[in-house]
Design goal:
148 residues, mainly alpha
Length: 148
């Protein structure tokens, strides 16, 4: 298994764990509070805004730990450069992830237009962001294993 595949698998697992733990925290906080419509917007917007830096910091820490453990276990360094294949795979995976998020965004807006509560819009956006990130990582793994 190549370094890139291992790195994307670790990233995929960490994304799922981060999202799962943070979602449990947000769901518990949501259940404990009785909020009106205006407070719901603030609550969910705050939850999404807080998720971004948390996931960035935890992802950086996990990447550092992965590099240390991989270096000790496999005596394999991180590649010093990305060749054309790496860049092409990254671009294709990013494109697919963006497609998924845009579909989720449109579905969230349609939910509001069709009269769903505002919480539904935020939940759809939240979940579509997660699914797009997971799909992007799965696409990268698939393209590295199968080739382009």
């Amino acid at each position: 298994m190549t370094y890139q595949v291992k790195k994307h698998i670790v990233s995929l697992v960490s994304t799922i764990i981060i999202f799962g733990l943070y979602s449990m925290f947000v769901f518990q906080a949501y259940q404990e509070k009785m909020m009106d419509s205006a407070e719901l917007f603030v609550f969910f917007a705050t939850a999404i805004v807080i998720l971004i830096p948390i996931s960035i910091v935890v992802t950086i820490i996990i990447d550092i730990l992965f590099n240390i453990i991989n270096r000790m276990a496999a005596n394999e360094k991180e590649p010093a450069f990305a060749d054309e294949l790496d860049k092409l795979i990254e671009l294709k995976a990013m494109r697919n992830g963006h497609y998924i998020f845009i579909i989720g965004f449109v579905v969230a807006m349609l939910a509001v237009v069709l009269g769903s509560p505002p919480t539904m819009m935020f939940v759809i956006l939240y979940i579509s962001g997660f699914i797009s990130d997971v799909f992007e990582k799965i696409t990268s793994i698939y393209l590295y294993l199968r080739g382009i």
